[in-house]
Design brief:
Length: about 45
Amino acid sequence: MRQEATRRQDNLASDIDELVDRVNPKNAVARWANEAVSTVKGLFRR
């Protein structure tokens, strides 16, 4: 049951992010930039 609740929370968070992005596309760009930076940093931390 916890896994299902966690999955639903993740889906809801994703849906909310998508709605916010449609209202203000700058938020999407900022989030994508942050994710890209985190990914690159993760590659070099090994």
